[in-house]
Amino acid sequence: MSNKRIVSGLGVTFITLFAASCTVPLLVQKDVNKAVPASYNNSLDSTNTGQSRWRDYFTDANLTALIDTALYNNQELNVTLQEIQIANNEVFARSGAYRPFVGLGGGAGIDKVSRYTSQGASDEISEIKPGVPTPAVLPNFYFGATASWEVDIWHKLRNAKKAAVASYLASIEGKNFQVTNLVAEIANSYYELLALDTQLDIIQRNLVILNNALSITKQEKEAAKVTELAVRRFEAEVSKTQSLQYEIQQKIVEAENRINFLVGRFPQHVQRNSQSFSELVPPRIQAGIPSQLLANRPDIRQAEWNLEAAKLDISVAKANFYPSLNLRGFLGVMSYSPLYLLNTPQALVASLAGDLVGPIVNKNDITARYKSANAKQIQTVYNYQKTVLNAYIEVANQLSNIDNLSKKYDAKNNQVQALTQSTNISLKLFTSARADYMEVLLTQRDVLEARMELIETRMQQMHALINTYRALGGGWK
Predict the structure, then answer these.
(1) Among 288, 403, 399, 398, which Cα is nearest to 51's?
(2) For residues 277 and 2, what is the distance between their CA atoms, to the nearest angstrom?
(3) How many Å separate Cα 331 from the centre of its chain?
(4) CA angle in degrees (0–180, nearest 5) for 303-306-309
C-alpha cells in the first residue's frame, strides 16, 4: 500500500472520528414566561412605595437605630456576605482558566538506559566531548519555563466565567432579599413590642378598676347587700387579670430578645416609646403595578440571574462534546552537568506541542452532565415563574388584608367605646344596688378583651403595612 493511500485513509478516519465526537444529543430547553397581570384591583397608578428607601418609610428613630445595628451585626447576614465573597473568588478563578498558564521551575534526575536499545547503542559509540565517551549512567539537570494553554475554540471557558458572574450577581440579590426580610422582621417585632407594652398598660389600669370594685363589694358584703360569693368572684377576676399580666410580661421579654438576636447582641432593654401606639396612624402604602415587581423584588432578580447561569451551563456542557485544543511548551536549559547550564546556545532546549482531542467512545459522563444542565435550566424556569407568582400573590393578599383590617379596627373601636360607657354605668348601678355584681364583672371582662383585641388589630395593621412594603420589594435599598 502506498504512503499516499495510508495518509488518505488516516485522514478519512480522523475526520470520521471527530465528526462522531461532535454529535450532541437533541434536548429541548424551556422558555421563561415573564408575563404578569396588568394591575392590582384595576389600579394603574405606578407610584410604588416599595421603591422608597427603608429610612424614608420607617420614621421611628428607635426602629431605624435597631435596623442600622442589625445591618452590621446580624450573623446570618454576615455569613451571606462571605458567600458573596466566595462567589466573587469563583469568578476570578474562572477568568484565568482561558488564559495561558506559565510556570517556572527546574529539576534534576539520573538515567540509565540499556545498551541493547537504540539509545544505549548510540550512547556507547558517541562522545559527550572529544575523548570523553558517554557514560552509562547519565545525570540530567534542567531549568526553564513551562506553558500550557487550552485554546477556547467553543467559548467553553468564557461561558463558564459568565455563568460564575451570573451566580455571583444572584448571590448579591440573595443578600438583598435577606436584608429585605431582616428589616421587615425587625419592624414587625418592634411594633409587636409596642403593642405588648400597651396591652400591659391596659391590664394594669384594669387591675386598678377591679381592685376598686373588689373594695366596694367587700363594703357591700359588710352592709349585707351582697354575699360572700360576690367577693370571691371579684377576687377570682383580679387573680385572672394578674395572671394575664405575667403572661404579657413574658411575651415582652421574648419580643425584646428576638430583636436583640436579630441585631446581634446579648439580651438588653430595647429602647422604645410605646405611649403613642394606640393613636398611631398607619401610613398609606401605594402598590404601583405588578410589572414593577420584576425590578423591585430581589428574589425575582436572583431567580433571573440563576436562569441566566443555567443557560450558560448548558453551553459549557455542550462544548464538552467538541474537540479541545491544548498547547504545551517548554523553554529553558538542560545539561548532564550543572556547570554547563549557562553555556548557551548549546544548553538551550525548547519544545512545543499541541493536542486536538475529542470524545469518541463512552460519552456517558459528558452526556449525563449535558442532560443534567438542561434539566437544571428547566428547573430554574419553573423556579422563576414560581417566584413571580408568589410575589404577586403576597402583594394581593396584603393589600386585601390592609383594607379588611382597617374596617375591623373601626368596628373594634366602636365596640370599645360602647363597652367603656357601659362599664361606668354598671359600676354606678351596682353601688346604688340597681345592678347585679355579675353585670359589673361581665362588662369589665368584655371591655378588657375588646381593648386587648383593639391593640392586637392595630399591631396587625402595622404588620400588614410592613409585609406589603416587603412584598413590593422595599427594604434593601
Answers:
(1) 288
(2) 100
(3) 49
(4) 155
d(C-alpha 456, C-alpha 468), whole Å? 18
In a domain, 438, yes or no: yes
What does R_g of the chain's alpha carbons equal in angstroms?
40
Q: Is 335 part of any domain?
A: yes
List Cβ neighbours of 336 (8 Å cut-off, separation of 6 or more): 128, 138, 139, 140, 141
- How confident is the model over 141-156, as pLDDT tens digits? 889 999 998 888 888 8
Q: For residue 46, what are the contacts with CB-CB under 8 A and spacing of at least 6? A: 288, 289, 292
d(CA 115, CA 385): 74
Position 232 scores a pLDDT of 85
Instruction: Say whether both 336 and 462 belong to one domain.
Output: no
Residue 338 gets which letter from DSSP?
A: G
Cell representation of residue 137: 549512567
Task: Specify whether the CB–CB gap between 140 and 336 falls below 8 A.
Answer: yes
Q: How distant, in Å, are the alpha carbons of 278, 390, 406 from that of 263?
A: 26, 28, 31
In a domain, 11, yes or no: no
Residues 416 and 447 sit within 8 Å (Cβ to Cβ): yes
Same domain, 61 and 94: yes
pLDDT at 13: 47
Q: What pLDDT is stored for residue 382 in this prediction? A: 94
Q: What is the per-residue burial (b if ≥16 Cβ within 10 Å, else e) of 95-126?
A: eeebeeeeeeeeeeeeeeeeeeeeeeeebeee
Residues 163 and 217 in one domain: yes
**Given this model, what pLDDT does residue 145 score?**
93
Using alpha carbons, list the distances in angstroms from residue 476 to 76, 398, 439, 466, 473.
15, 19, 53, 13, 8
Q: Which domain holds residue 115?
A: 99-151+324-357
pLDDT digits (tens, 9 = 90+) for 1-25: 455 555 455 455 455 545 555 677 7
pLDDT of residue 7: 47
CATH of the domain at 249: 1.20.1600.10
Q: Where residue 121 sits, what CATH number does that domain have?
A: 2.20.200.10
**% pLDDT > 70, the chain:** 89
Domain assignment present for residue 461? The answer is yes
Contacts of 419 (CB under 8 A, 6+ apart): 443, 446, 447, 450
- Are residue 348 and residue 204 in the same domain, yes or no? no
Question: What's the whole-number mean pLDDT along residues 112-123?
Answer: 80
